[in-house]
Every structure is written in structure tokens, then in C-alpha cells.
Amino acid sequence: MAMKVLVPVKRVVDFNVKVRVKTDGSGVETTxxxxxxxxxxxxxxxxxxxxxxxxxxxxxxxxxxxxxxxxETLRTALAMGADRGILxxxxxxxxxxxxxxLLKAVAEREAPRLVILGKQAIDDDMNATGQMLAxxxxxxxxxxxxxxxxxxxxxxxTREVDGGLETVSLALPAVVTTDLRLNEPRYAxxxxxxxxxxxxxxxxxxxxxxxxxxxxxxLVSVAEPPHRQAGxxxxxxxxxxxxxxxxxxxx
Amino acid sequence: xxxxxxxEHAEGVIKQPSRSAVAAAGRLGxxxxxxxxxxxxxxxxxASKLPTIAKVLTAEDASLAHPLAxxxxxxxxxxxxxxxxxxxxxxxxxxxxxxxxxxxxxxxxISDISGIVDAATFIRPIYAGNALATVRSADATKVIxxxxxxxxxxxxxxxxxxxxxxxxxxxxxxxRFVSAELSKSERPELTAARVVISGGRGMxxxxxxxxxxxxxxxxxxxIGASRAAVDAGFVSNxxxxxxxxxxxxxxxxxxxGISGAIQHLAGMKDSKxxxxxxxxxxxxxxxxxxxxxxxxxxxxxxELARELEKSx
Lengths: 251, 312
Ligand SMILES: Cc1cc2nc3c(=O)[nH]c(=O)nc-3n(C[C@H](O)[C@H](O)[C@H](O)COP(=O)(O)OP(=O)(O)OC[C@H]3O[C@@H](n4cnc5c(N)ncnc54)[C@H](O)[C@@H]3O)c2cc1C
Ligand SMILES: Nc1ncnc2c1ncn2[C@@H]1O[C@H](COP(=O)(O)O)[C@@H](O)[C@H]1O
Fold this sequence. Notes:
The complex is a heterodimer of chains A (251) and B (312). Chain A has helices at residues 39-53, 70-80, 96-110, 129-137, 190-196, 206-209, 237-246; strands at residues 4-8, 11-13, 20-21, 28-29, 35-37, 59-66, 84-89, 114-118, 141-151, 154-161, 164-171, 174-178, 201-204, 217-223, 232-234.
């Protein structure tokens, strides 16, 4: 059965960049910072490509939601191997519920058998969108996946849980979210980057999808976390143990 | 109206992160606990003993034998109309189910809160803990996961709340539990331990993690790891501490052969005392360590084990 895979990819501040809080406490300073695809979404794109390489997936559609620059993130997905992109363009700050509603609308147009998302966006650290999308579609979910097997009408997902691993079996269509051990994403080769320029990106809007993206959470303020002072270096193991016993009194 | 807290349990014991969620919920009003499972008797009895819980709801059904998100979220959504807030710990299970429940009732969840300002306003870390956001919810019901390391748990004993069964929605057949491969350990759980000793890529192999064991034995410590150590297969995924792993705040955290990437610091920088052992004196971990030892771990760890054997 033809299996289309939808992969939502978010444009975020690169994981190597340490962000700063704006001095007026109104948010995080992001202007001029290096932006990249959310690392968990790279894993999602990679997994979709592997399904296609195995002949299990027929088409990979990458979707990004946000400002026009999110098309760069889509180009990255296309260069890795996605077939086409959808940009849902809006200036509104999107929160997971709105993202999930928009993705639901996209899923209804595209009718994928599988949606693979990252487990967490490393900017908002919400870890919510995939679960919410699954709920809105009424589909089962396999979150924090470290292994994904497609077999017939189902998916078998091994999940990273607090005590170790758990395996669940899901009826398709389903939503899967990626954890770090699912795979190691490939780099796009130069020829593939060139080829990606010719792959189509369709632009939609929340209005066209019939979704009101208004945020439910208001950002009241953003503050620096308490700063931890570096302590001191000790000269030996014996000194370390003595300090932990008599000064810090933690052992 | 009250706050409903989803209580995770195993072998008739309420897990510590859930007791932290109960503590957080207690700041907002009367707390009811929800115990779901296939046979909930012992766990319900344990829940009723949690001080500050006014009522325990039990949901007993074969479909709830494993904490699958689909039936649990449907259950939470069915109970939501009676509550101002739905709470759970920000554990793997809590993160799996709460956003799903929130979407079913058209609510934007608030993940991983580390502070409470008022009934609608919460503090949560963003960007790997490099910023703390204060957010206010406009939703009628607030759906929240609680960063357990930020709230001292309520004690396990002292209360005697009444227990009341609730109806379980018809099960959704779309997902099925297959198997679990859980790490067995005699050590305390990572998120509940008073002392944590973690190894990183510097440990070089899974075999070398044994060097941490006599020290962990002596200190009653849990063993943790960096992402690099987990990715390399030295230890299993449940050891990972960090932004996308477990968040811990023990009295003592010992980082061995860990460089101190922001994603790792996100999971341990609220520890009371931090010790770093690293052969690179410039490693960023030393910027947050109270006590830093620049040394080769392969000589420092055996020495540390010997030194701890000596009585003070
Ligand atoms: C999306 C994403 C999520 C992530 N989530 C997490 C997370 O949750 N947790 C996490 O930990 N990381 C996470 N990371 C990874 C993080 O960025 C770092 O790559 C990782 O923490 C590095 O692990 P490490 O310190 O063990 O390894 P390295 O950075 O390689 O450091 C090894 C250290 O060991 C020291 N060393 C080597 N040999 C010895 C010796 N013989 N004696 C003493 N010291 C020695 C070295 O000096 C070095 O400082 C994430 C990354 C991404 C992109
Ligand atoms: N604006 C967005 N555009 C595309 N995908 C998104 C967006 N926001 C969230 N996602 C997807 O949802 C996942 C989880 O995000 P979050 O729930 O915000 O932590 C991400 O890894 C993406 O796969």
C-alpha cells in the first residue's frame, strides 16, 4: 500500500548557540543567531528517507510552520531527501496546540499513513506537538521512538521510557516522535542540495487551512536562570573527599 | 473545584516524581489523585496515604494495564470537567499522555514547570534551561507537567484519603503494549537519588562504567550518563541526564569524563553540590562545578573509591 509520510520540521536556534535573555525580560534574543532544523526533526526526516529507501514509503512531504524563512528549513529537508515541501506561513507565534491543529489540517489534505515528528523542539522544550496531533487526528502515537518497524497495516515502535525501553504496536495511520537513538541523520550532499532547489514548496496560510493560530499562553516575562558560580579546583582526590565531608557536608 | 494529579505507580508504590507533582498541585487547591491500572488496589491504598490528598480516584480496566497514552488521555479528558487543573510529573509517561489529554479538551499544555506564580501563571525552563519563561494560560483547564526536581515530594505516608472508583471510557484499540525491557538495578532511581555519579564519553567503554560502581555503592548513588555515553552504547538510554533526558537535582552530582555541554548542564545544574573530574582543565563543566579535579579518571576513580573506604 502506498505510504505517504509527513514530516514536520521546525526552524530553531542552532543547538550549539547559547541564547541570551533580552535585557528588558521580554524574551530571548534570537536576531542574528544561526538557525537550523530542530535536531530531532533531522532524525525524523532521516527515518522517513530510510523507509523510502526500503521501499516502504512512497513519498515524503516536509512541512514547516512559521515565518517565510522556514522555507530554508524545508530546503534542508528536501536536500536530505524529502520529495516536496509545504510552508504554512504566518507571523503569529505558534504554540503546540496551534501547530497540531495546522498539521491536522495538512494531514487531512495529504492523507499520510505516518507522521514523524521530533519529540521536542529545542527552543520551547515543550515535547507536546506530536502527542497533540495524534489526539486531534484520533490516531495512535508512538513517542520517543528509538526503533520503528513498519509491517503491513501496523507500526511497531520501541520507545525510550524512564525505566528503559517499551515496545508498542500501532495501527496505521499513526504518529511517531523521534528520540536521539532512532538513527544518525545524513548530511545533504552538494548535488542533492542543488537538486533540492528544484523540488516544489507549496505555501499555505492558517486562514486557508481554516485554523485560528492565536496563542493560548501569554509570555509574561523571561528571566536568566540563577547563575552558578564556578567553585575551586582541588589538588587531589584526598582533598576532594575531605572537602565533601567537612565543607560541603554531602557525604 | 480541585486539582487532579495522575499518579504513576509500580508494585503498589506511588513513584517519587508523582509525589513531587502532588506537592506542586497542593499549592493551588484541594488535590485528588488518579490511580489507573488493571488491578489498582495496592497502588490506590498507597495513594490514599499521601498526605495532602483529599480523594483518590481509581480507574480499573484491562485497557489500563500499561500506561498507554490513548486510553489514559481519554480517561483524563473524561474527568477534566470537574477540575481546574490536570497535573502529572514530567516523566516519560507524563510527557506521553498529558499533551494528548490536553488536545482532547482543546487546551495548550504547559510542560515541565519549575515554579508556580498563581493558578494561571507558571515558570518553565526553555532553551535547555538558558532562560526561564513565565507564562500565563488563558485556558479554562490548565494541563501541566511538573519538573519533579524543582518540587520536594510529599511524604509517602501520613494521610488516609477516601477511595472512589470512576468510569473508564471504552478502550481505543489502535495501540497495544508489546513488551518492556526495563533496566534492573539495586540502586536508587536517578530522579530520586540523593547522590548521582555520571559518566561521559571519557569513560571510553561500558566496561569502564564499573569503575563508578564501588563509589556509587559507598555513597548510595544512582548512576547517570551523558548523551555521548548513551549513544556510544556504554549504558542504556534511561541513564541519560540532560535537556532531553532526565533532570536531576541531587545533593551531590559527580560528573566524570563529561565536558559540560549546555544540553547536559540543563539536566543537572540545579544540583546542590557539583563535582567534576576531567583531565581537561578548560572543560566547561568546571564553570559550574563547586569542586573540580583535573585528573585522568582512570587513576582518580580507583583512588576515590579507596579514599571513601577510609572512615572519616
Ligand atoms: C538535540 C540534542 C539533545 C541533546 N540532549 C542531551 C542530553 O539530554 N544530555 C546530554 O548529556 N547531552 C545531550 N546532547 C549532547 C551534548 O550536546 C553533548 O554532545 C554531550 O553532552 C557530550 O557528552 P560528553 O560530555 O560525555 O562527551 P564529550 O563532550 O566528548 O566530553 C568528554 C569529556 O571527557 C574528558 N575525558 C576524556 N578522557 C578522559 C580521562 N581519561 N579522564 C578524565 N576526563 C577525560 C574530556 O576532556 C571531555 O571533556 C544533546 C545534543 C543535541 C543536539
Ligand atoms: N513550527 C513548526 N513547524 C514544523 N514542525 C513543528 C513546529 N513546531 C513543532 N513542530 C514539530 O513538533 C515537534 C515537537 O515540538 P514541541 O512540541 O514544540 O517540543 C518538533 O520536533 C517538530 O517536529
